[in-house]
Amino acid sequence: MNLLLVEDDFDAAKSLIRGLHRSGHEVDHAGTGTEGLNLARRSQYDVLIIDRMLPELDGLSLLASLREENDATPVLILSALGEVDDRVAGLRAGGDDYLIKPYAFAELLARLEGLERRQRVEPAVARLQVADLVFDRDRHRVTRQGQTIRLQPREMRLLEYLMRHAEQVVTRAMLLENVWDYHFDPQTNVIDVHISRLRAKIDRDFSPPLLHTVRGAGYRLGVSED
Amino acid sequence: MAVFFRTWNLDRLQRRWRNFLRLLHTTVFRFALAYALGYSLIAGLLLGGIYFISNRFAHHQIDQQLIASQDVVLRLLRDDRRGDVRELLGQPGRRLPGSPLLMVMDAHGRSLGGSLKAWPAGVPLRPGFYTFSLPAMPASSPSFWRDADDYLARALVARLPHDAGWLLIAQPLAKVDAYNDLIFSLLLGALILITLTGLAGGILMGRGVLRRIDAVRDTAADIIAGDLEQRIPMNGRRDEFVDLGEHINAMLARIEALIQGMRAVTDNVAHDLRSPLNRLRSRIEVALMEAETPEDYRLVLEEATLELEGMVRTFNALLSIAQAESGIRRENLTSVDLSQLVSDLVELYEALAEEAGMRLRVKIMPGVRIRGQRELLAQMLANLLDNAIKYNSAGGSIEVALTADEACVRLAVCDNGSGIPPEYRERVLERFARLDSARATPGNGLGLALVKAVAQVHGAKLVLSDAQPGLCVTLNFPTSSLLEHLNPKGAFRKAR
Prior knowledge:
The structure holds two protein chains of two kinds. Chain A contains eight helices and twelve strands. Chain A is an alpha/beta fold. At the A-B interface, α4 and α8 of A face α8, α9 and α10 of B.
């Protein structure tokens, strides 16, 4: 991915850029809001990562300027402000996702990929397929190797989300936000139980396994093992 | 005198003087002063008018008396009743009104008699009224601020019949002046009295108000100095000051609660993030000394990451509690479908409960809405369900019930686990409070503290009770302010 990071904390930016490079992404870095705005105007990025508190031009104003210029590049907002109101303000200003500092790098990476994917995948597509697993949205039917799998409504939504983000790491927080539509810290492994139930239904009687646990990050639905 | 000086030392005098100066600057005193001046002005005009009219009247009276006396004397002279005239001229006749002074002079300027020895200077030989100075003091007592030679008299001059000479009848003005002086003194006295009363009233009222205001000021000063528990003393009658004081006290109580909340948070942060920081630091330091292989380092770094994750979690929970405790801004309150929220979260946690071998039973009244903050309510219920599962054992059951009636919306989460002994039920609501029996279970001791804070901000009453066995956590949300409406399927609509 081709990314723009607008972050004034130089040390944080440095390690973030290293991590993103290692994950195979290209990153441009801007230290101030105006510099970020100029870079964003000049070239085309897949996702913008914008810190909220920036010198010269704050993150939300930068974002608002871009949106006014009909720039629809997906934006991930980083913020040290964690209250619900701030998240709402960030998303209202045109942000596509919101991540509160301190965050896990895996979480950031998963969300970046999620945002890029959202751009590419047609959301209204009715039929999703990963290997021999098929999700037919219109008929509310899931089959694997031609056999129908009975799923609860919530399991359907969970599977749909995972399939839309196939071959991509999805974190627990992303699942809670997108499948259950809640933003809170569930303390326990409440999501894991739902995943293992889903896994029991789609993977137990079939091979190869499709729903993988990614250590320290979350889950990935896909054919590849790693 | 020595005692006097000791008590009235310079310091105290200075303070008194400063207080007096402050008094002069009070609004009430200024109002009183302005009113006193205004009233004095009006009273002065009024009294001046009275004085003027009464003075005019007195002079008019004298002129009338002089005319009447002249008539009598002229008639007597015309009738030529010499005896009577002699008697009249010899001494001021008692028969004439006002007992005036008399003087009759022939055409050659010779005195024919009268109580005046000579024709007074300054009075011309022409009929009419004149005012002249009396050469000598008459017997009447002088007024204290008037010199004797000030004595004036009013004279009426008339021609005698057949051009035989001149008649002068005069009345000293002393009596009139004395009367005028008396009235003037009275009026002046009244004026001074009015002014002084106004001033005194102003001072008294100003002092009264100042005393009440000083009570507020002193309280504020104490609070500024750091004593947050100070409150404005409430005594005396119910008036606007008591009313204001009550409002200020309520505000102070709220602010104090907020500040104490903040203090508690910072204390907690300092105390409970220090130990994990310490663990983290020693782990890293030891690794720097001992670790040799990349695997060793990797292990330590992974442990450190887990530790950090726990700290971030604790930190976030503390912030959520602080946010809930500081209240939700009105514009961030929305109508939350509590029925939907409860069923969502039950669904989320049901799998976990079943995995742990517990039964989760639910009874949800549909369409119950309250005004609130959705994410906080969700976090609260998640904490309750999490606890219920954590402190229950396989084979146990958990019951979640949402009911509503006209008085309140009631949300209850009960389990049949180990429960909480009654004496600890208050304490477990505090931050980082963990029962000894719970030490082995993972958790940061903030779950119920957040429940309490969220309940508080939504105006809900939180009750921990015995489920025999187990714990029952009940939240009673008031319907009056929070419940908007129930759909037609619900048991009632909000009473307006």
